Amino acid sequence: MSKSSMRSNEGKGALILLAGGASRRMGTDKALLDFDGEPLARRVIHRLHGRGEWEPFIVANRFHPFTEWGWPVVRDPWPGAGPLAGLVAGLQASSHDWNLAVACDMPFVSRELAAVMYQSAVVESGSDAVIPRTGGKFHPLFACYHRRCLPVGEALLKNGERSLQALRSMISIHVLDEADFPPSIDPERALFNMNRPSDLKRARKWK
Fold first, then answer.
1. Dihedral (Cα; 143, 146, 151, 156), 10-degree rounding
2. How many CB atoms are closer than 10 A to CB 199?
3. Which residue among 2, 30, 65, 174 is least enclosed by CB atoms within 10 Å?
């Protein structure tokens, strides 16, 4: 997909759904796992897209079946290089300044928390990213990234670096701590991601 196919200046920004992982620990493609009657990746977009605040597109290693869902699909040009590669591919395709990146394996992502991150991004205009943190742990796969991160990410990939932690160390970030979350949000659920069958079992009990 070319940049020209992205509509600029609509809503808050782009919603970059990262669906290119190998899902080795899960044993099956997490993006297509049935969760409460729909594929997990599509559920994540529906939870965040809401009334059209974000312009969604999907970063994946293949187009089928994602193109059937009605959102643009961007092929990851660095398959197997991890989430940093997916984020960079998304930023390359986006025409927006601010972009909400989210992993496809987070069934309870919060639109309210996304809105708070975006507002923090606007207020903290000198920051390159807004990343939530709970219990001392950063959550870079549900975070807002400015396009200023793109050349840094590209340089890291060119040098063989795949770590989002490396990106974080080279950009200016605003940390959204748990104390800054809206009181209605359960941080454990909102930032819960599934890597193993046991995680899926736990998440299905939460429904």
1. -10
2. 17
3. 2
Q: How confident is the model at residue 4 (pLDDT cuts 50, 70, 90)?
A: very low
- Residue 40, both tokens: 């997990």
- Domain annotation for the chain: domains and CATH numbers: 3-206 (3.90.550.10)
157 is in an annotated binding site: no
Q: Which are the contacts of 182, defined by CB distance < 8 A and separation ≥ 6?
A: 112, 113, 116
> 43: Cβ–Cβ under 8 A, 6 or more apart, which residues?
35, 36, 107
- Is 0.85 topped by the overall pTM? yes
Q: Is 180 annotated as a binding residue?
A: no
Q: Is residue 176 a known part of a binding site? A: no
pLDDT of residue 82: 87
Backbone CA torsion sign across 119, 106, 136, 206: positive
The annotation status of 36 as a binding-site residue, yes or no, is: no
